[in-house]
């Protein structure tokens, strides 16, 4: 174990040439980031998760009720043991051949069975109330941490001149403000990483998981090798747009469409300008070029920049989806969803209760089969959400 730890904490990987861990030990004159400081983030992440549960139950939920957001979810499908077995053990999206077989077995028409599967899938969706509470929690945290970051950074020299991130590096003292900022951000993203498996499942689940891992890695890397100054700029820049998207979601759930459209437009402009403009010009420029000129590259420098570039690729992917959403919103006259974070389920359209048995009129029956199957297999839009 000692050999593994020695290999992992190899000074020639983590630190610039001629710098050792002993040089960065805390003294009476100066405090530097220590890797063991990050252990505090694990219990704090659990505390943040518990605070979230309390917040959603006693603050977000009453706010949602005040906005007339209902707690009831989608209409439940009629109980049927055969269809339930197919749904749970075989497929949630039966093909045309299976639909026809079930139609003969149950003496139901195909359209009724399609509707049953659609309603059964919708049962697994969270209610609008649950979505609102989740968004309100994230909005509150992002607003707080972004406000804190702006107030802290506006007093620092590296906000106005990014070369200050590298002067006298890595012998830059750790302030209480940076320490608090880092530990809180790391704890929050750790809580998001684990709660992602219990939260509303979205179709960009893997992308978001990769994003959380990259973010946690970046925070850890930049703290351990004392790139905290540039790290604080990265965190603050990312929190800005997140405040607006969560506000837009809440407006959507509360059916305030005009406000939702306005917030989404502001979010789209801020996200694309900050992630495709400010981020590469301001952040990548200083981490790739200014740091090379002042400090020079070393192994963990390469890893840190590769993670930042990975983040830029994710920015580009999400910007494409946001533009796609904006174009659809313009054509429809309103924002209906944000493709970055749609729920991973099918449409809740046509939720009227199914008849118990099929009609025996052959003409009607044939029409239901053809139109129902074709209508379903062409696919349906996801439910409205940002």
From TrEMBL:
- For this entry, list what GO says about its biological process: ceramide biosynthetic process
Q: Where is the Homeobox domain?
A: 83-127
Name of the protein: Ceramide synthase 6
Q: Which GO terms describe its cellular component?
A: endoplasmic reticulum membrane; nucleus
State the membrane topology: Multi-pass membrane protein
Q: Which reaction does it catalyse?
A: sphinganine + octadecanoyl-CoA = N-(octadecanoyl)-sphinganine + CoA + H(+)
TM spans, by residue?
Answer: 38-55, 180-198, 205-224, 260-282, 302-323
User: What keywords are annotated for this sequence in UniProt?
Assistant: DNA-binding, Endoplasmic reticulum, Homeobox, Lipid biosynthesis, Lipid metabolism, Membrane, Nucleus, Transferase, Transmembrane, Transmembrane helix
Please list the GO terms describing molecular function.
Answer: DNA binding; sphingosine N-acyltransferase activity
**What segment(s) does the record annotate as region Disordered?**
338-386
List compositional bias (Low complexity) regions by residue number: 362-375
Subcellular location, record wording = Endoplasmic reticulum membrane; Nucleus
What is the protein's species of origin? Seriola dumerili
């Amino acid at each position: 174990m000692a050999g593994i730890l020695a290999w992992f904490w190899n000074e020639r990987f983590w630190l610039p040439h001629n710098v050792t861990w002993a040089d960065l030990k805390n003294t009476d004159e100066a405090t530097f980031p220590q890797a063991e400081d990050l252990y505090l983030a694990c219990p704090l992440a659990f505390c943040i998760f518990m605070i979230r549960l309390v917040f959603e139950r006693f603050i977000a939920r009453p706010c949602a009720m005040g906005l007339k957001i209902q707690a009831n979810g989608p209409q439940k499908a009629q109980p049927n043991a055969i269809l339930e077995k197919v749904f749970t053990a075989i497929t949630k999206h039966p093909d045309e051949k299976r639909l026809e077989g079930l139609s003969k077995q149950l003496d139901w028409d195909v359209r009724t069975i399609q509707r049953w599967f659609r309603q059964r899938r919708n049962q697994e969706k969270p209610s609008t109330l649950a979505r609102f509470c989740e968004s309100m929690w994230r909005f509150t945290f992002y607003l707080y941490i972004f406000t804190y970051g702006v107030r802290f950074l506006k007093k620092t020299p590296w906000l106005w001149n990014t070369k200050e991130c590298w002067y006298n590096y890595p012998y830059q003292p750790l302030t209480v403000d940076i320490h608090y900022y880092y530990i809180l951000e790391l704890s929050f993203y750790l809580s998001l990483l684990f709660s992602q498996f219990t939260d509303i499942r979205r179709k960009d689940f893997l992308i978001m998981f990769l994003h959380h891992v990259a973010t946690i890695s970046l925070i850890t890397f930049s703290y351990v090798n004392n790139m905290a100054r540039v790290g604080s700029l990265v965190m603050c820049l990312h929190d800005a747009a997140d405040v607006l998207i969560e506000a837009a979601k809440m407006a959507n759930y509360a059916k305030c469409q005009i406000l939702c459209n306005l917030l989404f437009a502001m979010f789209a402009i801020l996200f694309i300008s900050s992630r495709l403009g400010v981020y590469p010009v301001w952040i990548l420029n200083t981490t790739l070029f200014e740091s090379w000129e002042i400090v020079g590259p070393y192994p963990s420098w390469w890893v840190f920049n590769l993670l930042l570039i990975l983040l830029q690729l994710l920015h580009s992917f999400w910007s494409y989806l946001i533009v796609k959403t904006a174009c659809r919103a313009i054509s429809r006259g309103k924002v209906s969803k944000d493709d970055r974070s749609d729920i991973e389920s099918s449409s809740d359209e046509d939720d009227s209760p199914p008849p118990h048995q099929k009609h025996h009129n052959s003409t009607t029956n044939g029409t239901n089969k053809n139109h129902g199957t074709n209508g379903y297999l062409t696919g349906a839009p996801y439910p409205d959400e940002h």
